[in-house]
């Protein structure tokens, strides 16, 4: 199966297409965003040859997955647009490994997990490897698999460390360095780990 990503200029994933091991191309995922990623719509619509009808699929129930995340962006659960339908649920240890007997899946696995990053389940099993953009992370050893490109900036830390060894205080946004996730980040104009074009006027909040 071949997978193709559609991204915006900031490398944010907008949609995912695949060929399902055949000649036809299918629109598989359409990501939904507010101030951060909210979840995804799953059209599974053929776009090559005789394309499907997106309007019809959009009005069908049970094609949307919404993310329930914590302050670190960890996807703790995904729910459907149908009442009382929980598709996935996961609890994480501080450095991101999935806790034993504290995860649940109704139908398949969800693409995103710890810190909201994309899982690479084909390599080491479910949730054991994530793509952070600049580097690949293995939560089982709490380390990145390659040297930090800006390691000279932090001589006191191992070049393979994750989030300055402070996984509850902050996240490693793109595999480079710690990004604190607390209230002052909102005053600086950060939402879900991403810098906004303009800071938020906290006087009006």
From TrEMBL:
InterPro entries from the xrefs?
Rhs_assc_core, T6SS_VgrG/RHS
Name of the molecule in the record: RHS repeat-associated core domain-containing protein
Domain of life, per the record?
Bacteria
């Amino acid at each position: 199966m071949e997978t193709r990503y559609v991204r915006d200029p900031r490398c944010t994933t907008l949609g995912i297409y695949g060929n399902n091991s055949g000649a036809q191309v299918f629109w598989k995922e359409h990501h939904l965003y507010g101030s951060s990623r909210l979840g995804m719509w799953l059209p599974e619509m053929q776009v090559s040859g005789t394309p499907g009808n997106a309007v019809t699929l959009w009005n069908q129930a049970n094609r949307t997955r919404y993310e329930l995340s914590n302050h670190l962006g960890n996807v703790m659960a995904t729910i459907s647009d149908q009442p009382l339908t929980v598709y996935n649920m996961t609890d994480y240890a501080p450095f991101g490994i999935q806790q034993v007997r504290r995860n649940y899946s109704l139908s398949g696995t969800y693409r995103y997990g710890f810190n909201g990053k994309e899982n690479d389940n084909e390599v080491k099993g479910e949730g054991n490897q994530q793509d952070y953009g600049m580097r690949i992370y293995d939560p089982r050893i709490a380390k990145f698999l390659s040297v930090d490109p800006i390691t000279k900036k932090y001589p006191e830390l191992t070049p393979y460390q994750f989030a300055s060894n402070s996984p509850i205080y902050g996240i490693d946004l793109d595999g480079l360095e710690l990004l604190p996730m607390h209230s002052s980040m909102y005053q600086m104009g950060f939402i879900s780990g991403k810098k906004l074009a303009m800071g938020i006027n906290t006087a009006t909040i």
